[in-house]
């Protein structure tokens, strides 16, 4: 089993659908992240959880709703998305969130298309 | 002005060439510098990590940081087709809790 696993790998949804992205890490880490990756743009940090507590929300629209039930699992609940939300959504984990050199380990991402 | 600038490429080189990938940045507080490699349909993986200025070598890869010029580089010697990927630079200040990424350079090494 790879360190950070994301499901599904691909998702196509209509603007009125509700879906969820799942992330699981097997590295014993305590911090988990959601990033959005759009073509030719830098990775955009969306949310950060440290020891299950949300510590960052980078002005993400409320149609994205994160959930972190424990340090190993992270979800991103999606509803009423817009076509411009189509992107690769990446989950990452690190030992813990602290000021310093924590290193991120990424999953393979969910390629989301909103029709 | 973007905090981190990275030429998106694409960059194509023949097998065996020396590759130079670069990023410039504007925030003089950045202290931690990283290079991530991202293969197609995969997430980024940490390739090199450097603290402050200087060089760091790992096999065919050398990371170089010049803080006075606010410039970082990744050199790949004897490039291989398996090095074909997108390379992302990332950096962070000591007080920040998040990385700032470049937009990535797409590299193709032709056999």
Using only C-alpha atoms, the radius of gyration of chain B works out to 13 Å
Fraction of residues in β-strands of chain B:
over 45%
Shape of chain A: globular
The total count of strands of chain B amounts to: 11
Distance between the termini of chain A: 32 Å
Q: Helix fraction of chain B? A: under 10%
Number of helices, where a helix is a run of at least 4 consecutive DSSP H or I residues of chain A = 0
**Uncertain parts of chain B:** none
Mean pLDDT of chain A: 91
Secondary-structure class of chain A = mainly beta
Give the largest interface pair and sizes. Answer: A-B, 25 and 27 residues
Order of helices and strands of chain A: EEEEEEEEEEE
Q: H/E element string of chain B?
A: EEEEEEEEEEE
Range of helix content of chain A = under 10%
The number of helical elements of chain B comes to: 0
- How many strands of chain A? 11
Return Rg of chain A in Å: 13 Å
How much β-strand is present in the residues of chain A?
over 45%
Structure in words:
The complex is a heterodimer of chains A (115) and B (111). By secondary structure, chain A is an all-beta fold. Chain A contains no helices and eleven strands. In chain A, strands 2, 4, 5, 6, 9, 10 and 11 form a seven-stranded mixed sheet that branches. A four-stranded antiparallel sheet of chain A has the order 1-3-8-7, with no helix packed on it. The mean pLDDT of chain A is 91. Chain B has 111 residues and is mainly beta. Chain B contains no helices and eleven strands. In chain B, strands 2, 4, 5, 9, 10 and 11 form a six-stranded mixed sheet that branches. A five-stranded antiparallel sheet of chain B has the order 1-3-8-7-6, with no helix packed on it. In chain B, strand 9 and strand 10 (100-101) form a beta hairpin. Chain B is globular, with a radius of gyration of 13 Å. Chains A and B meet through strand 10 of A and strand 4, strand 5 and strand 10 of B.
């Amino acid at each position: 089993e790879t360190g950070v696993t994301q499901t599904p790998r691909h998702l196509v949804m209509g603007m009125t659908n509700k879906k969820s992205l799942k992330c699981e890490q097997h590295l014993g880490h305590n911090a988990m992240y959601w990033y959005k990756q759009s073509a030719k743009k830098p990775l955009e940090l969306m949310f950060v959880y440290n020891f299950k507590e949300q510590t960052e929300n980078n002005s993400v629209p409320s149609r994205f709703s994160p959930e972190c039930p424990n340090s190993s699992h992270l979800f991103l609940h999606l509803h009423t998305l817009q076509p411009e939300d189509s992107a690769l959504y990446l989950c990452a984990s690190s030992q813990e969130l602290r000021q310093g050199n924590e290193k991120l380990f990424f999953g393979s991402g969910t390629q989301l298309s909103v029709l | 002005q973007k905090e981190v600038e990275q030429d998106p490429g694409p960059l194509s080189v023949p097998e065996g060439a020396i590759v130079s990938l670069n990023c410039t940045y504007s925030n003089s507080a950045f202290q931690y510098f990283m290079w991530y490699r991202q293969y197609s349909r995969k997430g980024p993986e940490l390739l090199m990590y450097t603290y402050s200025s200087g060089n760091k070598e790992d096999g065919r890869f050398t990371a170089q940081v010049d803080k006075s010029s606010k410039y970082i580089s990744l050199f790949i010697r004897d490039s291989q087709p398996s090095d074909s990927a997108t390379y992302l630079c990332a950096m962070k200040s000591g007080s920040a809790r998040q990385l700032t990424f470049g937009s990535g350079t797409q590299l193709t090494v032709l056999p």
